[in-house]
Amino acid sequence: MANIRDLRQRITSVGNIQKITRAMEMVATTKLRRFQEGAVAAKPYAEELERLARGLGGAAASDPDAAGDAAGLFRPGDPSAPAGILFIGSTRGLCGAYNSNVQRQLESGMKGLPQGSKLFVIGKKAMEHAGRMGHDVAAYFEDFDPEKTRFADAAGISKAVVTAFLEEGLSGMFLCGTRFLSMVRYQPYFESFLPIVPSEGELLSEPLLEPSGPELLERLVPSYLETRVFHGLLEAITSEYASRRFAMKNATDAAGDMKKEITRTYNRARQQKITSEITEIVSGAEAL
Predict the structure, then answer these.
(1) What gap in Å lies between CA 29 and CA 122, rounded to an integer?
(2) CATH code assigned to 54-247
(3) How many whole angstroms separate alpha carbon 189 and alpha carbon 236?
(4) Buried-exposed string 186-220: b where 16+ CB fall within 10 A, e elsewhere
(5) How far is the C-alpha of 257 from the C-alpha of 237, rounded, in Å?
(6) Model pTM?
(7) If DSSP codes are grouped into helix, strand and coil, which group holds residue 180?
(8) In the chain, N or C: fewer CB atoms in 10 Å?
(9) Where along the chain do its domains lie?
(10) Sign (positive/negative) of CA torsion 265, 271, 273, 275?
């Protein structure tokens, strides 16, 4: 039977851990609701902007002059050239399987890409994974804090990856992150970012444009790419806190179950000690 003092210390320790995980669960729940509001509010705008950009892409594909300076963003790169991946991970741990899921998605997506593909990394945990796997990191946005995501930050990141795509002869640019679906569900993804592929079913043929096509696309395409990065960052941080909330709830429940089990063991040990002491007292009295 375990020592009563040790059991009492274990009960206290597990109770303290349970308080910490419960507090972390409450913090994660509060932040999750805040980030969820932003991600859900931005989704319709991002989807409509993507539909418009891809629809106008039909005109850009058939007539590059119609896209003006944005024509290069619709032009496929050399299939044998390395690709670029904007890899959105977590800065902090204690978020369950969030990091391992997005890292697994990255490795799966990179299997079909040419050798020498480059990563543009967001998040300390994502950078640690890139280092362990020996991936070529073209840029690490170390100063970026996902919890303080602003559209200006997303615009800067978008500009960096677009410049790399245009100037370094990459075959394409991909996004790897997580898509927020619900409070208890998120989904890792690995999808194309550049070049912009026109929608097959929603081509806007010979649209009436004001201002002109080149001028419109020069304004629309950068805004579309920045919005897509911004929404990807919002969904990533929302998914991270959904996973952290779930992990902390499981940890709190497990600590509660462990505390109950140790308490039962402690009560049995204490009862056994009391019984043993009573037996000794009775035996001593009878000896007298």
Answers:
(1) 23
(2) 3.40.1380.10
(3) 11
(4) bebbbeebbbbebbeeebbeeeeeeeebbebbbeb
(5) 30
(6) 0.86
(7) strand
(8) C
(9) 54-247
(10) negative
In which residue are the tokens 């945990």 written?
125
| CB-CB contact of 206 with 61 (8 Å) | no
Going by their DSSP bridges, the two strands 173-182 and 185-194 should be labelled as: antiparallel
Position 252, amino acid? T
pLDDT truncated to tens, each residue of the chain (288 aa)? 568 889 999 999 999 999 999 999 999 999 999 999 999 999 999 988 888 888 776 666 566 566 667 778 888 888 889 999 999 999 988 999 999 999 999 999 999 899 899 999 999 999 999 999 999 999 999 989 888 889 999 999 999 999 999 999 899 999 999 999 988 889 999 999 999 887 765 545 455 455 555 667 777 888 999 999 999 999 999 999 999 999 999 999 999 999 999 999 999 888 888 888 788 777 777 666
Per-residue tokens: 166:
């245009």
